[in-house]
Amino acid sequence: MRPLAVRLPPELIHWLDAHRGGEARTTFLRAILRDHIRRQSRSRSRNRPAVRDATKDSAIAPQRQPPLL
Q1: For a designed S-S bond to 20, which of 11, 13, 27, 28 qualifies (C-beta 3.0 to 4.6 A apart)?
Q2: What is the pLDDT of residues 10-31, one digit of tens each?
Q3: Which stretch of DSSP H or E encloses residue 65?
């Protein structure tokens, strides 16, 4: 993966410097982005409906019979 150059606003740079605890800016930003991507993928997988196996369901589910007249 190629590095991506991004120009950050000065307010964000000041916030990073205040909260990074001596870590390099790039390391700190990568950790934040990695956590964000992980949370998004978890949320996406939770919100995705479960895919049901049609062959399994049809083998187990009883067949409906039309009512007798």
Answers
A1: 28
A2: 998 899 889 888 888 888 888 9
A3: none
